[in-house]
Queue: 4 jobs
Job 1
Amino acid sequence: MFLQEVTGVAHPLTATAARWMWALPLLPLLGFVLNGALSIFSAYHAGPADPGAPEAHGSHDVTGGGHDDHHHVAVRHRFATLTSIIGPGVMVLAFGLAVAIFMAMQRAGPELRTPFIQRYYEWMPVGDLHIDAAFQLDQLSMVMILVITGVGMLIHIFSVGYMQDDPGYPRYFSYLNLFVAFMLVLVMGASYPVMFVGWEGVGLCSYLLIGFWYLDKANADAGKKAFIMNRIGDFGFLVAMFMLWANIGTLEFDGVRGQATALGSNVVTWICLFFFLGCTGKSAQIPLYTWLPDAMAGPTPVSALIHAATMVTAGVYLIARSNFLFALSPTASLTVVVIGALTAIFAASIGLKQWDIKKVLAYSTVSQLGYMFVGVGAGAYVSGVFHLVTHAFFKALLFLGSGSVIFAMHRAYHATHNEDDAQDMRNMGGLRRYMPWTFVLMFVATLAIAGIFPFAGFFSKDEILGTLFIRARGSTLADANWLGIPGGIVLYACYALGLAAAFMTAVYMMRMLIYVFFGPNRSGERERDFLGEAPWIMTAPLIVLGVLSTVGGWLNLPESIKLGRIGLLDRWLEPVVGESTLRITHGAVPKVNLPLEYVLIGVALAIAVAGIIVAWIVLKPADLVPKREAKPEEGFERVLANKYYVDEIYDDTVVRPTVAVSRDLLWQGIDEGLIDTTLVNGIGGSKGIARIVGKIGSLLQSGQVGTYAWVLIVGVLFVLGAFTIR
Amino acid sequence: MLAESLFFSAVLFTIGVVGVLTRRNAIIVFMCVELMLNAVNLTFVAFSQVYGVGGQVFVFFVMTVAAAEAAVGLAIIIALFRHRQTVNLQNVNLLKG
Amino acid sequence: MNGFLSSIGYDRWVLTALLTIPLAGALVLWVQGALGGRSGGADPRTATDEVATGVARAPRVIALLTFLVEFIVSLGLWWAFDPSDPRWQFAVDHSWIPAWGARFTIGIDGMALMMILLTTFIMVLSSLGSWTYIRTRTHSFYALMLLLTTGMLGVFMSLDLFLFYVMWEVMLVPMYFIIGIWGGERRIYASLKFFIYTMVGSMLMLAAIVYLGLAAKNPMNGIPTFSYDYIMRNAAVSPRAALWLFGAFFMAFAVKVPMFPFHTWLPDAHVEAPTAGSVVLASIMLKLGTFGFLRIAVPLFPSAALNDTVRSIILGLAVIGIVYGALVSMVQPDFKKLVAYSSVSHLGFVMLGIFALTVQSVQGALMVMINHGISTGALFLLVGMIYERRHSREIAAYGGIARVVPMFAAMLTFVSLSSIGLPGTNGFVGEFLVLIGSFKTVPIFTVIATTAVIFAAAYLLWAIQRILFNALSKPENEHIADLNVRELLIMAPLVVAIVWLGVYPAPVLRRMQGSAERFVTIVESRSSTAYAGTRGGVR
């Protein structure tokens, strides 16, 4: 069936459950097809045979699409039950398979040093370019697969409740399933092009899901913005691939890893930088992050899955996967660290002043992604991936929790026909009395993200900052220069930025918690009667995520906190990233300096706690008023609330000029003006040169016989003369 | 003898040409064309004195053609007159372009 | 399958049949029209709606059947073609005009094979697409389409330069009429512009062909010869002359591609042409220009193509076309014009691929030619469908119609994604191969061209957002009919092709590999005579 199995020595995973790994993306793809068919064929009414006839028109039954602002069509879809089984069902199956494969990998244990590759067929065989459709399974992709299918499964189940009354129910699940399929292709691809298929595919699904309620222009705009900004990053990804092939001649991960050292250091740096451009697009780092907050226009479970747990982490995965390239280029790695750190603090500062609950979480995601990039940039690949995993847990929990809150607010506003913004924190308050479960879980998640012991975020964030500090003391990065500044100083500076961002994280997350769940309720007297806990189908996944956010830290306990088996993730990922990590640390396994470790941990913890306390003391929920009565911000607060006006700057400096130049200069000026009017019509048109010459020539045709006779005589004389003179 | 005849023919021919080029009335133009043809006839006869009877034979050809051409040409002028009510050549410029 | 084909002697008659079946169809149409009565004269004021009166039923069925037969006959080529054989396949060689040395020589290789299949495939779909679009003088329309088919196929198959030129010109006249009679408001201007523009280039090409024919003339009796193989091997042409001849061919083909700045006929022609006209124009006729470069201009004059200045200019124009086409596309208010400019952009990729001169980039260029034919053909068909309903091509006339016509919306979105080059669709394969192949030899041009992926997403997504999404603000859009069964039937094979070529393009690539490799070899060896011996002439 397959083009070839792994040649040579049989891989330890050959005869295990891993041989079914091709079914992992195929299951959600099947879900996409089935749900998509349900969606489109329930909405499709065949048109008349002659659409051009004057009486031809469509049916009057206008369904499926989504509600616009004012007319909520809350109608349960015909095929909702069937979709509820297919959509989450394929995810459950996929997760089950993922677990089975994971156990097979566990059993294979330490023999698993090389990836398990299955080649299916030749995708683009052209001369010496061989790009095969192939998947690979190794420890890193397994981590990602478990996160994607596990958290994805929970979010699918949550969506059954959240989207229950949406007329586009099957369409939603088909897109969501397609997303998971593409994401799995992304992490399972055995080469950069196959990964790119998943890379762009998730961008497509993101576009479709952000603009899910497309009748509202703002939603459609947000989707388009996301896709286009992603594409700017994709440009980088593509160029990096071209450079790789032109220099090494292979695009498979295994092949590149083997020959990476053959690349000149300049070439490697450029390849890594171009890949990183792709990462900034996909993972919303500076300068291509502005699409992520806008992406909150999509349904909240989409924000949870795509814009928190999985798609945006694709950039981190890319760098972790390309560790052999980044480890060879200290300059590129330093760039990643710097951008990551800057993004972390920049986004955190904006989050301090956002009022929409989802926007707070969006900027928080951008900020946390910055941390992950700091991790993988500093050569702490395990730390970056660790934070990716824990972040998936608590950020998904936060988003789904906010989804429950928004669900309740929507229900309340629906019932009272209130037009206010259901997502604005100023319209909430004191919700812990009405939604106790959600409150507890959100609190857990807040502690996790702030980095409080013993929750998951504490371990992962601390590990990143700690490793960063250690790299600053001695590594290839510290030895290198970044734009003239010594690497060590850059790394220390980023460490400081990281701490500052951690402080802000604690503050704005606590702020969110306080404004939403504490203090008096600002939703309105009549609305209060309708506020309540979400259905169990939505709260159950929250509980699972809550548990994971609590115990997730045990995945990679550091030596300084021996509460169980230490460094599980370290050992798991060692075959994939170990070599590169050693290259960065000058080949030496850094000795654990326990006193330093405790100091670093202490500092991080203290900052987090300080943030929480500051927020608790300074922020007074009682001072808030509902959104419609709120005064606009002033001064620096206004700058923060308007996100430093970056969107507006981009619009004015990039978007508008491009459109203006295209329209006025290129189209009207050159195409219609220069080429068409001047050249084409100037030559051949009704006022052109051809006509003018023709007009002059036509003077000869006077229609006068006499003139013709004269010409004839003159000609005869001329010819006779010529003959005579000859 | 020959020189005088040729001179005479040349003069007649030239008068004919000038007439064709300058006269406005189509019928006068035709008369001038006839004049030209006859001048040519005279030339042929003059030369036949020297070179043999072939020239006189050719005169007959020319006369026949002249007659046919006069008939057709006058028919065209009559049709033209019916259409445009004029035989003034300066007004007949339908082919102007 | 191969056994069956050889048992009917397929090799010998297939190409001739492909040229004559459309002519036969046109003949049947003429007879049926004369017997069955069609709507009166050439006066547009008395033309009746033949679709409503049923007069159109016979001609469109006859035409469709002819095209289907044509397609099925051509399908056999897919299996019968032998990718490993370097000679011309299915070749036919007859004497035609001995006094001029023009012979009727036709044959195909890998790239011609795919172009022929694309042509017959698209013609079936465009005849289906005109079912209710063409409402007057239907007999003439379908007859012209059939003639057009013969012309286009002839160009792809010709191995004799004189025949090539004749077929090239045969294409022009039906297209001129199709645009001029059944087109939009400015159709006369558009069709004249198209005709004259193309003619100017063709005239230069004719001069070049005559020169070549004479240069290769038989020394014994002085009769010129136009045989492609013979000229490749034996024509004695000085390097300076080669440059001029290349320039002449360049002018003819550059107008057709269309390359910037010779592209301005395209937006007008596309906008004013009826749906089927636009589809054929975009899907097939544009490819004739690039095919001309691949078959004639470059292989016959490799030193001219390798000349640094010439190459830089052409690559520069190609890249300008890619970016310029994309940017101008973005600001068009008319959707058809938007797609027209996007064709300029896509064909720029093809030119980049050809002149980057690596096997990967040439294969990529060929793939883009096929893919563009499918995706842009699909886009034009969809535009035609919505035009039949609402009689407007202006993007601003729509908005939010995804709710009313979900199937149409799904199709339009999918086809747009293919045009944007989403991996998994056909568009990605071509663009990727072109770019990765070109990067090896002309990296800077390639990087600039890669930025076009951003702009492509921008112009198409913005356009379909304004058409399909946003609020359903106009009441006249609320009752548009969705696609009917026939229209689904048109779109289905296109969708299948898009997915198949995106996921599993290997069979197509394998068939074209040989011709791509030969192309690169000829150019790299800087002479077409180095090629002698491997091509044993006509089989």
Job 2
Amino acid sequence: MEPTVIGAYGFVVALVLMFLRVPIAFVLVSVASVCSLITYAWRPGRDFDFERGIRPALSLIETNAFDFIHSYSLSMIPLFIAAGHIAYHTRITTDIYAAVRVWLARMPGGLAIASLFGCGGFSAITGSSLACASSMGRICVPEMLRFGYGKQLATSTVAMGGTLGSLIPPSVLFILYGMFTEQSVNKLFMAGVLPGVLTMVGFILVVVIWSLWKPSDAPIPDELRYTLRDKFKAGLKGWPALALMTIIIGGIYGGIFTATEAAAISLAFVIGFGVISRRLKWADFLSSLKETAYQTASLFFIAIGAKIFVSFVSLTGVTGAFVAFVAGLGLETWMVLFFIVLLYVGLGMFLDSIGTMLLTLPFVIPVVEGMGMDLIWFGVVVVKLLEIGLVTPPLGMNVFVINSVVTKEIKVHTIFFGVMRFLVADFVVLGLIVAFPIISLLIPNAMS
Amino acid sequence: MKSIHSYLPPDPHGSDPEYCGPGPKPVRKLRGCLSWLENAFIYLGAICILIMGVLITASVLLRTFGNSGVTDEVTIIGELMIGALILPLAYVGADRGFIAVEIFTQKLGPRFQQVLNLLTAIVGLLAVMPITYAAYMTMVDAYTSGGYFFGMLQLPKWPGATAFFAGYFLFFLRLVDLTVTDLLCSLGVIKPRPDLPSEEL
């Protein structure tokens, strides 16, 4: 049987199984294993020979499953996740909101903007948009509603704020993208900073315009009046989060340490802070580590699956055929990019971000590389698109999580309608990132 | 990165695969052992993560203040990664905590959900079986050849290979248990608890 045909069938079977809610990791590993065996055992023009196929197929599986994770640089993922969990238990993440809220209380939409800052900081430190939506949804949304904020504005702000963590370092999506495309994670982290800031500015603009256009949705609460002393006191609360971001971004940018080392130092910092401030309880420490092991294992099993799947795809030559097909179409660069955007927005509506990225990269990267595009810049575009997928209907996981933690009177469609306004800003920022690659590449190019 | 359900309000019954009925005493005992091992393995994985953090931090501090470092750091971290990532897999599997796309199937009835659970368990077995076998071969090779990593300490390869096999073997056992349970559920031999939401049946 022709390997490309096996590859195409494998891809279709994988999609069908995924839509039948078989876990993505199981689908990738099983389809790649079975199809690799068939590819090796059923060479073109020859009969099927199980004996001939089993040994190389097992070797392919073992090499990808073991060697991939026996890695120093990938250790940054569990370390960053552990730092995020412990930062949450030591209240470093929620203190960001408490600090900014005091400063912005008297501004139109001030509480919503403070929520954006809080969510951005939370999701950047913990690396999880869903955890952010779940935790900050319980803190920010009830408070905004208590002060008379509109339901759409209150809920959609937190749903959107949680997505900011995908671009702001440390981002698990960037780490996985870097590993699968062999790009520097340090550079990817730095490339995400300006687009992350730009997205934040875009969201703030949406809140301000919304508040000015419909003041009843964002009243300025009379009871929230703070003196300068209060503001400075509140500002001090945010120092651990600021220090953590400085360690990560400053340390990597200044060439003081690598991303992996930054992860370990971040973990040491949050544990040290938790112990000295007596905010970290032994039980929380243990549950943080256990939760980290759980999350990391779940995440890496997908990554292992994707690694085996990528090897299978290249074995069958499907990628080459796909690249030749795209080249044969003679499309302009902007048209290819347009189709890639459509692909990611479409898949992002139904698949989760990691699954979408790992499933598409083997096909998209050779096309993009062949057209001479910068893979660091393209990584930012992909992560931005995946970030959008977190809030687009019908899946929009952040929206469902927010919906589950707020009052029952708020329906999912209410949150989705609010999110639509922010999505305008998101697509404008995406357009800017695509049109001006310098936005992404300025900092990595200036790195020492 | 966990399933979306981890962030939704807790299901009072959890997703414990044992809900499908208590089963005979020896089976319950075996499941108890399996759960105990899964719990022990996830804590071992957690300890590996903590040790990685300590080692890398120590290495940075030694480099900054002592012009030295941790010997064979890269190899040790690589070995610890195996423990950190593979040992907790069985625990995650028992919790049905792997990410899946649920949007297209969540409206289907309980009967379909049972069949889909069975399909998941079978595909899971199909995925884990070859890796477990390959892990076994690697472990045997590490013991028989006495292989070691190049470096100052010449660290042996067997600890990582053993952890790799142990993690996947336990995961495989859990998937066998899930497959049998889901098969019996979908055949109606044992009854799922009636008060569970349909997608968890």
Job 3
Amino acid sequence: MLESTSAVSVPIRGPATSALGAAQLMLARDIRLAFRKRGQLIQPLAFFAIVTTLFPLGISPELSRLREVAPGVLWVAALLSSVLALEFLFRDDAHDGTLEQHALSGQSLTWLLFAKTVAHWLLTGLPLSLMAPLAGLSLGAPVGSLGGIVVSVALGSVALSLIGSIGAALTLGVKRSGALLSLLTLPLSMPVLIFGARATELAMKGAGFAPPLYLLGALAVLGVTLAPLAAAAAVRINLE
Amino acid sequence: MAWTWFHRLASPPHVYGLAARLTPWFAWIAAILIAGGLYGGLVLAPPDYQQGDDFRIIYVHAPSAWMSLMVYTTMAVSAGVGLIWRMKVAHAVAASCAAIGASFTVAALVTGSLWGERMWGTYWAWDPRLTFELILLFQYLGYMGLRSAFDDLQRADRASAVLAVVGVVNVPIIHYSVIWWNSLHQAPSVMQLGKPTMPPSMLIPLLMMFLGFTLLFVALLLVRLRAEILNRERTASWIREAVSP
Amino acid sequence: MPARTLQAENLHLWRGDTHVLRGLRWSLSGGECLQITGGNGAGKTSLLRTLAGLMYPEEGRILWDGEDIRRDLPGFQGDLAYIGHEPPLKLDLTAWENLHYWIGVRRRLGDAELQQALERVGATDWLNRPVRTLSAGQKRRVALAGLALMGVSLWLLDEPTTNLDAAGQRLVGALIEEQLARGGLVVAAMHHELPVSGAVLRRMELSAGLEAGRA
């Protein structure tokens, strides 16, 4: 029991948690929760697999033709899967009242939401980027380019998760928000799509794909600094 | 003392009355400028040595595109003011801007498409400026969609304000896209520091159109704003006096 | 030792077109409990949420120890606990895990302390089951354990005795009495009487908000 040095009559027992500590707790909690509902984790990945299958069926089974559109197909599928996954970023916490408690915890809501977005990426974006090379192979990508595909999708999905967190926070109270969430997120995600597809395309050709990768990185950094702030503002508005 | 005008702008009845008085001025001057600009551009200005008469669509296209950006900026700024200082009137201004801005964007895209068919042989090209202008249209639609998704007006105002402010990043991107990237779209010939590259006979009608469109926007905004304020304040007592004949 | 004070100054709040809080003005000191009564839609929940800093009053302000809560909202919120109609628990976590997170984001929580708090509310047998499997009353008890563990000065409670049996209601009374004895403050919205005896209990009745007719 700490000796309270202030004149407060009701001392807080135990040392206060730091912002970083709170963020770590949030990250661990979200990951633990996700593993209790494993079915939900598979959905975006299954969606990604299905969408990438649709293109060969719709365009042509010839690998030489598919190879040309592969970067675009991969990225559109990744983008759509990310938007699908975004719905459960804040939804559960909003429904059971725990989101409100995050806002009332005395900790920075920006930090806590950033931690949630990181957890969300680890659970959706990262697996997606590990699945992408498989989809790439099915679309004719050369084996040497698979590493480049993983890196570009991983980095791009970081930016997508962050940008998407803003839309997810804004549409918290809206029922059946799927279409609206897409309308809000996709326009802002188009730069990610452009640079990501370019990076993947260069990787598949065996060329250096560093320039678009740096731009993807810049978008991710921009997302990290600005998106959680906007998301926190949006959450507070929806809690009013 | 300097802040009294700011505080008065926060009062819906004051703004309602002010808007009513200002609208005819903006509307008439806009009409004159647009009529003059169209006459000067479509009739008086000489044909372009490269494009012939095709270039004349610039008199509608360029001002529309410019307005699409300016209206979004106005929307984002007033949304930001409403968000920070909790001014209802600022939110009403932002709400009134959206449909006007979307219309200007559509006009810019359509006129640009017609012009592109003449200049480049195609109705559409995935070039940076065109693509980002299309994204701007989606941003307007997203803003309007988000607004309509909420039953509670205050929440609709504040949530869409966050969206408008976040999305304003696209405005400088569109403007500078022709400088940053090798674009099909021509480089800015009017909005440059130093001497513009157009001869006065072409430039003056164009400037008249820019100014005319701006005043047209303000006039339309004031009309919509009055309707917005009427709707929002419909239960307030000042309304009965203001509206009764 | 200066006691803590919570003051509401001329609070006005609108929800849509309804003028829910109309110029509320009161003051509460450490060791006192304010019970808010009123019918459905009278604004009890709105008042609690405004006190918690979640809602923003159109006019008026709230003072904590004489200072506007807006000046340092996170600091103020770090010293209060707000429990709404539903206990804020994740259904897929156990009672233990829920509290470990809920309290842990604020302060370091020892296992022994957590165990003791859960045992006190009678959760010994079911603290390691997912909250999804618990009854409404059991969930409410977990929330009460969290409340006791928080160690904050101000409690804002919305119908704290909902779904509790007689023993549970006595538990709520005991917890509130302990909080008041420590010098803490409690504001509770209740349909009926708080099971608190002998403590400084003040009452305030809210009547249904006025529709329309704003000046």
Job 4
Amino acid sequence: MNHHRTTATVGALLLAGTALLAGPTPAGATPATPAASSAPTAPGAPCPNQVNGAQCPEAGAGRGGRVVVTVELPAGSVQGGGGGGPTCPSADEEGREPGEGEGWMTYDEWRELNAPGVYDPGPPPSDDAVYWVFACLMRSGFEMGVDFDWWAVEQGWGTPDEPPEAGPTATDILEPLWAHVQGLLLPPAPVLQPDEDVRSNLKIPTFVAITNPQPATEYRTTYAGITVWITVDPTVTLHPGEPGAAAVACDDDGTTYDPAGTPPRDQAAADGACAHTYERRTGVRGRPAAWTGDVTITWDVAWGSSEPGQSGTLTADPSVTTFQRIVDETQVVNTGSED
Amino acid sequence: MALIVGLPLLACSSDGGDADDATIEGVDADGAGVPGGGGDGAPEPAASEPDEVYPHVAELLGRYDGLVEQIVADPAALESGDLRGDFLDLFVPDSGFAETSLDGWAQMAADGVRLTPASPDHPLNFTYIDGGVRALGDDEVVFRHCTVQRYVRHDDDRETDRTAEPLLLPGTGTAVRVDGEWRLAELTTPPGLTGCTHGSEGP
């Protein structure tokens, strides 16, 4: 199994209004489903773009060979309410005057603008519910293109008199998602061949299989209409522990010795083999009783969201599991016959 | 799947009011004539000047469309020649979007699928900025775009699909300035969206 080391691209920026692609959820709503991670899923909605499927966000999910895992956050796990409600992006930037009519408007008022970005809100949650859109007039004033450009920054159900309460931001959602994902970044579980509790023989390779492979994965969740994802790309390295031994890059599942395959040394020499041939005995001339090696997973973590500009990188401590390797010159360890 | 509402009035129309009279000064359909372009080595404008960035993004989209049309007409050609490199040159280094695009077209080649223009008068894939360019930072912009597609699909040289009407796919794109030059970062055409503010012909 190979994990693919692909530079994370997390700038899948959508229109603010496209946050409702998965179906409208009133801002600030709480998911009804308890916390869970799904099994790895295939990308969902069909891609309308037959010319370049990469343009579909869902087609983009799992890019770089990543497994896609959908996470359902526990009810109440998302804190924060957007910091006081939506604002128009760059409204206070130099050269841009706030446009007339910006702010919350009812769905009927929005329709008069004939602007995209608002989707079928579905049935109202109550008889007197009113669908609201927080709209920004992104009047740029440049001579090319159009001279009006409405953006739907936020939308959701409210009452006839009040727009919906401020919903969470992407970073509000990121926090519990990252906490959840961190719990899934496990130390590697290496199994040595020859076994760790037996003596290895000089010149006979030690193979390291990893029984809990953790492939490159994209974790994603949608909460209150905002999709947030975290991409985790592991790099697995074997440190044999023997003085002067180079680190060995491994696949996420390491390498299992195949007794029916080619000679051990050939298997160990194959590209990508997670193996090391010890050259120095232990327990002699002041050397320790065993070499202390380890398997280390370093994690490249990035996050993105369906909200423009809401993306970045995250830091996770490496996951390390150590092992002891006794190396003896005379003890024969049967890892298979060698010619 | 959520359905779009409130768009049909504009979805297939180019009579977008004031916008109809707007022109992209100095930029032709292929994006040629970009102000400040031509490889003079001067840094391209910062995102804080979106009207200056606009033609650079438009030019990238024009080149993108041209290359896409060549690629999907014969995806197997990516294995040789300059198409792959030319395509990657449009994007930020190590672009996951670009790589995913190429992977998809490699799969098309493996499946024996190719696409050709449905009309001699229109390109197979026409991507325009459907509105303005907005700064996300000094070196990054986001823009709403529309991809207009008119194609015939061939499976093992047998026609299996044809767009009877132009397919209008709105979405969002991002571009990043790398070493003083604008490059595309990503284009999206989310499922569930159809219709563009400026119809099939663009602004």
